[in-house]
């Protein structure tokens, strides 16, 4: 708990359920519940309320669900009586320009990220999930207090896996990322604790 928080995504949550989240919280871990809610407003509101009641540190929704859905998510969090960070996903880090075109988005990727992040800010959420490559632009356009959570982080020695827009931990922080999401370079390392400590050391050397 002193070195990191834990992300619980769809696969783990489907297999182990809310009980695992509660167990991790009982061991003093902050939990980022990464379920990316995306539905009509009422189910999203109720899902965010239920997730918040678990005591998670952070949860997320898809910004492409629109303003009404994101506002409903915010209302669900408020109803819970808890105060987790509520953030939205802009463009998945596995997507590039051609992937956007496949789903009918003709605008440049960076413009789409900024559009969705601006909607998120207007809806009253705390921040967005975005590639670190967009961090400088978003901080400049939306303010230093707008929280940026960046996946696709890979230490220099790690493989890209299925991420197409990746940067190193030190690059991400330098560009304005507030929180780094680092998965396989730690979880699949021969010594996960040593891998985590090495990343901490890299960041301390900034």
Automatic annotation (TrEMBL):
Pathway: Pyrimidine metabolism; UMP biosynthesis via de novo pathway; UMP from orotate: step 2/2. Its EC number is 4.1.1.23. Substrate binds at residues 7, 93, 154, 163, 183-184. The keyword Lipoprotein does not apply. GO terms for biological process: 'de novo' pyrimidine nucleobase biosynthetic process; 'de novo' UMP biosynthetic process. It catalyses: orotidine 5'-phosphate + H(+) = UMP + CO2. Transmembrane segments: none annotated. The active site is at residues 34, 36, 39. InterPro entries: Aldolase_TIM (IPR013785), OMPdecase (IPR014732), OMPdecase_bac (IPR047596), OMPdeCOase_dom (IPR001754), RibuloseP-bd_barrel (IPR011060). GO terms for cellular component: cytosol. Keywords: Decarboxylase, Lyase, Pyrimidine biosynthesis. CDD domains: OMP_decarboxylase_like (cd04725). Homodimer. This is Orotidine 5'-phosphate decarboxylase. It comes from Candidatus Wallbacteria bacterium HGW-Wallbacteria-1.
């Amino acid at each position: 708990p002193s070195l990191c928080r834990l992300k619980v995504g769809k696969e783990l949550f489907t297999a182990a359920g809310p009980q695992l989240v509660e167990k991790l919280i009982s061991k003093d871990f902050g939990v980022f519940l990464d379920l990316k809610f995306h539905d009509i407003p009422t189910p999203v509101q109720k899902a965010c309320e239920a997730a918040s009641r678990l005591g998670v540190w952070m949860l997320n929704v898809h910004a492409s669900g629109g303003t009404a859905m994101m506002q409903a998510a915010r209302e669900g969090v408020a109803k819970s009586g808890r105060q987790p960070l509520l953030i939205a996903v802009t463009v998945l880090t596995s997507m590039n320009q051609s992937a956007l075109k496949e789903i009918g988005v003709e605008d440049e990727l960076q413009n789409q990220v900024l559009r969705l992040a601006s909607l998120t800010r207007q809806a009253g959420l705390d921040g967005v999930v975005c590639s670190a490559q967009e961090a400088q632009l978003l901080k400049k356009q939306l303010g230093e207090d707008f929280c940026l959570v960046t996946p696709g982080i890979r230490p220099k020695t790690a493989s890209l896996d299925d991420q197409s827009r990746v940067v190193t931990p030190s690059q991400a922080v330098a560009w304005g990322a507030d929180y780094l999401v680092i998965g396989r370079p730690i979880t699949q390392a021969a010594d996960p604790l040593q891998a985590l400590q090495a990343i901490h050391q890299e960041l301390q050397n900034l």
